[in-house]
Amino acid sequence: MTTTLKTLIQALLVTALMFAIGCQGPSGPSGKDQAKLYDVTGTVVSVDPGKKSVTLDHQDIPGLMKAMTMDFSVEDEKVLGGVSAGDKVAGKVKHEGGKYVVTELSKR
Ligand SMILES: [Cu+2]
Predict the structure, then answer these.
(1) CA–CA distance, 102 with 56 (Å, rounded to integer)
(2) Which residues have a beta carbon within 5 Å of ligand 1, which is an ion?
(3) Angle formed at CA 104 by CA 103 and CA 108, multiple of 5 degrees
(4) Which listed residue, 5, 61, 79, 107, has the most CB atoms within 10 A of its CB?
(5) Cα of 66 to ligand 1 centre, how many Å?
(6) Poorest-confidence range of 5-9, 24-28, 49-53, 75-79?
(7) What's the CA-to-centroid distance between 2 and ligand 1, angstroms?
(8) What distance in angstroms lies between residue 28's CA and the mean position of ligand 1's atoms?
(9) Residue 80 DSSP class
(10) pLDDT (tens digit, 9 = 90+) per residue, 78-100?
(11) What's the predicted TM-score (pTM) here?
(12) Ligand 1 centre from 98 Cα, in Å?
């Protein structure tokens, strides 16, 4: 009887644990912070490959923000490979989890 009870409790615990893990799936981080990509055009103000950042004087990004000068993070240093201060550029900005990350940038 004691062994049976123990086994039963163990089985219940395992089931509860699996259920708890299973429940986290759909409501996890992948749920609502979907990245969105936007086209961006503007002029490079400065480039900082070491910090993986670029300052752009960008034009309106429809659906995202008005024209302004601001710093962007870049996804990879390579994004900054072909551009330097003063260049007129076009690229893509990813808006994800409240952050803006440039994923592509090239001279126009
Ligand atoms: Cu901006």
Answers:
(1) 10
(2) 65, 68, 70
(3) 155
(4) 79
(5) 6
(6) 24-28
(7) 67
(8) 29
(9) G
(10) 999 999 999 999 999 999 988 99
(11) 0.69
(12) 13
Q: How many helices (H) and strands (E) are present in the chain, helices listed first?
A: 1, 5
- Cα(64) to ligand 1 centroid in Å equals 8
Query: What's the gap in Å between 43 CA and the centre of ligand 1?
Result: 12
Q: Is 95 helix (H, G, I), strand (E, B) or coil?
A: strand
The Å distance, Cα 31 to ligand 1 centre, comes to 26
Each residue of 29-52: pLDDT tens digit? 444 567 899 999 999 999 998 999
Q: What is the mean pLDDT of the chain?
A: 86
Residue 29: alpha-carbon gap to chain centroid: 12
- DSSP annotation string for 17-55: HHHHHHHHTTTSTTTT---EEEEEEEEEEEEEGGGTEEE
Domains of the chain: 36-107 (2.40.50.320)
Cα 87 off chain centre by: 25
Q: Judge contact between 54 and 72, C-beta under 8 A.
A: yes
